[in-house]
Amino acid sequence: MTLLFQPSPPDHVPPERMVDFDMFHIPEGVSDPAEIWHDLVRRGVPDIFYTPHNGGHWVFLRYEDIVEAYRDHSVFSTYQTPVPPIEPFPVVQPQGVDPPAHNVFRRLLAPMFTPTAVRGMMGELERRAAVLIDGFAERGACDFITDFAERYPTGTFLYLFGLPEERLDAFLALANTFFRSTDPAARAQNIGEIYAVLDQLFREKKRNPGNDIATQIVMARDENGAQHPWEDILNCGFLLFVAGLDTVTNTMAYIWRYLATTPAAQKHFRDRLDDPDGFLRGIEELMRINAVSNLFRRVTHDCEYRGVQFRRNDRVVLPNTVANRDPRVFKAPQVIDLDREVNVHLTFGVGPHRCIGSVLAKREVMVSLQQWLRRIPEFKLADEQPAGSVFGGSVMGFTALRLQWEVAAKRAAA
């Protein structure tokens, strides 16, 4: 098989731009995977550097360069971008297609995730969060990841796609293998299993349409009145499956981890439970400081950018966590200001591929925190946290996060 999108050897990289950095490797003793990125800034490595790890790729560290890579698809493509390079790789719709072709499925999906559409989901989002939290509130402790943060967005996916609740554990198993496994054979089998599930789902929705996103995708028609290509339908379903689960899970994990160590921040949000604008402003700041995604681009042709030579098929990694703390853009960027008024963070990207589900993601986090604070008193990190529970890569986060609080009976006895 001819590999069309493999990068060339890095003989075009000058020695001063070569840095020994592996975004998947979290050194022993590091409790926050984002710190491996911020350590690069503290060390003063070049704003644009190359690492030979994971197939070799560039990294941009300046906000303005990351924005440029998001916006200029003529140089920095989203098509066939995996790090390490993998071929063949699913051409997810619309994220993995450059403009203007990406508009076909983007226009199809956009109405499903507008603020108005998401407002219509609020009752169900609130109900789902409340049910999960009520399941462990009286225990006085939980593993936030397994008890809530991974179940909530996956359950929401099932709801939006018109799938029964009893399939939650099966979908969680698929998602965990996709996001956590490093075994190539297991990953290949997992992707095949996800596509098989999506194929069965869309065929069922075609036979028996419902009032859900899966039905809208499979029943949509192109400009000639024909059904979209089946492969594109599956690739769109695949994007929605993988894009809305791990990022939301680990964004919530970061936020709850911060709140568990900062009682004043808990009080800030409790005081604003009836002030949605103030509450959401605080959420935006926590999303800025806790950006979990490091997105990929592929260079389309040999070129020069800011005096650096790039070759066709070079990969570029865009760490949002670094962009969101660039002092050239944000005042006191390391300070968490829950009342920050101007917040041009890149957590959801920018440009033609800005996250289409950003409104839903924000509301999932907001609803979860509101329902949590109405049911759980002041909480903190448990004394014992599992070793090795942090991970890096395209999405950073935690496999476990143990929290604890006093239950009502104990508070009354005290």
From TrEMBL:
The keyword GTP-binding does not apply. InterPro entries: Cyt_P450, Cyt_P450_B, Cyt_P450_CS, Cyt_P450_sf. Keywords: Heme, Iron, Metal-binding, Monooxygenase, Oxidoreductase. PANTHER family: P450, PUTATIVE (EUROFUNG)-RELATED. Belongs to the cytochrome P450 family. This is Cytochrome P450. It comes from Novosphingobium jiangmenense.
